[in-house]
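Onboarding guide, step 5: your first structure request.
Type a short instruction followed by the sequence, for example:

Predict the 3D structure of this protein.
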Amino acid sequence: MKMIEVIWFGYFMTYVWADGVADVVLSCSLVEQGVGLGGMGGGSLFTQTPATLVLRDVAVTSDESLETFTSFVPPSTPDPDAILFEAKVTSPEIPNANVLLHADCNDQEVICELSRYSSHGSQESSEPAYFLVSINVEGVDFSTTLILQTLTLERDHSTLIQNKLNLPLSRSGTLLTEVVFLVFSPVKSVFAPLRSDVLLNCGFKQQEIPLAQQVDIEWRLQHRGKGQKVLEMKTRLDDLEGSTVVHAERRGSSMDAQVVGEGNASLTLTKLKMEWLFLSPTDTEPTVFKDQGSLSSHRQHGDGCYSLSSQLTVPSDISPGTKIICKVSHPALDAPLSVSVLVESPEPDSYWLVLGFLIITVLFFYNVIG
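The system replies with structure tokens like these:
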């Protein structure tokens, strides 16, 4: 099955000013699973629909003038076809939200995706409804994921229903929601030398009254729709003794359960290593050879450069036509470098060819020595 990587982005921002706070307006896309698989039956994996997200009451620092923010005016006539989310972000607050306030002026692209979210045991069509929102700003270390919960509205004969989502709209034509949970990271990417330790920074916030005391955290290595679990932790925010259970799939991965209650879900990885990938013609997704590649130590050369080599022993059951790839990344490179080799079928006469070559070589050296 072929997987398609889909990225939708928002491209327009505006603001509403108030006393000490501003409303950030993001142009987003509502991403939904399509009908069919990769074009089979005329469908696609994902569909996208234009949507707008208004983040209410984003804090503005005291050294900024509110007059620099223009006003957002809701549509004069509510449109049941428009997808317009309205969310308060006062509790919990989005860390470093001032980046969103200035992204438009700094010509920074904002990537905003929304998708329907179903918690464990709930139906997607039930109310309140939940939505997952992913927001990234190009060129800066800003990345956050929000979980929005719709607010309860009293329905009457005049209540408008959003046509696509089948949810009630406010009198101004917006889907009223609140942020109940958010995950953020102050660092988008981390560079570290091989065999060193690295910290993957991750934090989370929720409302003053938590949805639940139980917290389940799972770190995964994900690539193009496929992945594997790195570490899983189950713990409680009230720090009940003996309540923490940790299962590490990757050797050298760990989390500090003592700081989870403070909203810290960071992961530590020790002894980073290079991994080899192979691609089979019948499978477009790479597979990792675990613990089968040897790695040399750093070697310094006379010109001041360093080199590092890796050797891989290929299993004998690898089928002909398999491509083996070595991929190397470095902060000094604009893009990763890679080399590949194709596994071919052995030639029937190759044994006799090699044997004949060895015999000729031995005779040659015998004649030279003699």
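Each response can be followed by summary notes, for example: The mean pLDDT is 76.
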